[in-house]
User: What shape does this take?
Amino acid sequence: DGGITQSPKYLFRKEGQNVTLSCEQNLNHDAMYWYRQDPGQGLRLIYYSQIVNDFQKGDIAEGYSVSREKKESFPLTVTSAQKNPTAFYLCASSILYGTGGTDTQYFGPGTRLTVL
Amino acid sequence: KQEVTQIPAALSVPEGENLVLNCSFTDSAIYNLQWFRQDPGKGLTSLLLIQSSQREQTSGRLNASLDKSSGRSTLYIAASQPGDSATYLCALRPSYDKVIFGPGTSLSVIP
Assistant: This one.
């Protein structure tokens, strides 16, 4: 069954701690993305990766870090430098350079991070 | 700078009514536009994708249109059902490597 998995579903962090959110896909997609969603707001792009061992900052990358050592995996680390990390985090993937703009994004179920 | 807006922010309709959700953007140069549905506390589910060269796409009771010249996309839902209650987001891709999401419209269909 193809898809994107994110874990954990809920995550609690104490102030000053780093935490890592997992994202795995078995869709054989080249591109992967991390978004942050706050109540009443649209999704904002944190980081994206188009190929293994390469990634680009999105609009709100400060306080976050990522790695892309395998095509299937794109973990996101929320560092202590992120001042307001409580949010809903969504991972997505897509093919790259879809013919005629057909590259649909597929989303995981999300991780809700709360800072205690 | 490309901006995406969705009006209204929230909409409540009686079951069976046809409705239109709006998505507006400021720059007509787009790669594609995608409509998503999000249930509370869940990820996004893709509904329809319209390529830059297309004017509309249909899937069941859903029809999405794209008018680049006016900077507008609409999602038409026919014969609405309580199960359609969710937040609907449009996502515009100005190029293959960028995505801009609208803030969403929260739809409530009353039985």
